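Methods: holo model generation. Sequences were used as deposited, without trimming of termini or removal of tags, and paired with ligand SMILES retrieved from the corresponding compound records. Each pair was processed once, and we did not select among multiple samples. The sequence and magnesium ion SMILES for this entry were:
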Amino acid sequence: MMLNVAVMFGGRSVEHEVSVITGLQIIENIDKSKYRAIPVYISKEGRWYTGEALFDIRNYQDVSCLLKKCREAVLFPSYNLKTLCFYPFKTGLFKKEPDGIRVDVAFLAFHGAFGEDGCIQGLLELAGIPYTGPGVVGSGVGMDKIIMKDIFRSNDLPIVNYTWFFRKNYEKDPEAAIKNVESKLNYPVFVKPANLGSSIGITKAKTREELIDAVEIAIRYDRKVIIEEAVQDPLEINCSVMGMDDELSASLCEMPVSWQEFLSYEDKYLHNDGAKTGMKGASRKIPAPIPEDKTEEIKQLAKQAFKALDCAGVARIDFLVERESMKVYINEINTIPGSMAFYLWEPGGVKFQKLIDNLIEIALERRREQENNIYSFDTNLLKKASSGIKGAKARN
Ligand SMILES: Nc1ncnc2c1ncn2[C@@H]1O[C@H](COP(=O)(O)OP(=O)(O)O)[C@@H](O)[C@H]1O
Ligand SMILES: [Mg+2]
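and the model returned the structure below.
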């Protein structure tokens, strides 16, 4: 049976444009003999749209004109309705369900806030719709660089020294916050908004003055800021992991090429023809020119990191390797990587179309696994409370 796959992209995120490219790459490469791709575009204002006009990347030059050619439609959170409902909803005397399109699987191509952080995953859980990538927890912790590092540390995975603070505490007493950082870390440091991506809001600081400037930038993007020691003259090595639970495989490793102090938004998307191909367009060496034992070490660590955050689908784990000592540190995980990291799997023989197939299979498998759980408990609690809830104590 042909499956209806809602390919979802865009969103209220600073990585909105990167997500549009990833989404359209999925639609272009999905196996059209097995799946019907339904584009679901979430605008920067957070409104949902579907329609043929969304298939053509040229139409995104003028989004307001594009949206006039589309219909608003939303996924209902009601369990098992599994319908992308056209908005405003039209029901009839004899027709209770609103007009819409059946959705068998949601293919998530979001990057950043409200799409890669567990929000949309929560809605799809309520709706009972299988979806690609990790669940609510894996998405949430994968997005928050502080909690991600806390979990890596508690799993004895190699990470750099770091500390963090709330924006409001910094604003209350910047001097104290800066002193606290200097008491724990050595310069140079990297300052990052806790929940962001694509190198936006990130700055390297070598002095107290630069640190203060860097914090002033980062606090504009998030209520929490992480500060971490810089790996000296690092090699950047990325590795992708695919699977679920502990059935995991690792891709070849890549070494992205940076033209600046560190891998910036420009490096990632605006060199070569990155504007057309997203992460695929960035300059990189595959396989990464590092010793075999280091490649193996990184692949193992990538799988451990994936498992520690209860991820599923495909993720890209980014490493920093100290050039002199070749000491390996996990920098971060991208639970919905740019272009689904297909360029890391193709050289190993997994074509983009096959990768998409695998991710949909994993999504269906995760849903089946969840259906094995029971979600109700026989109790006469409410019968007992039928004489009124005064004095009842709900202790969960
Ligand atoms: N601790 C660090 N030491 C050295 N370079 C770093 C460090 N943290 C980040 N960088 C550089 O900054 C880039 C962006 O940081 P990253 O944590 O990956 O943020 P994002 O989620 O925005 O990609 C990295 O690709 C790397 O070039
Ligand atoms: Mg990164």
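The mean pLDDT is 93.
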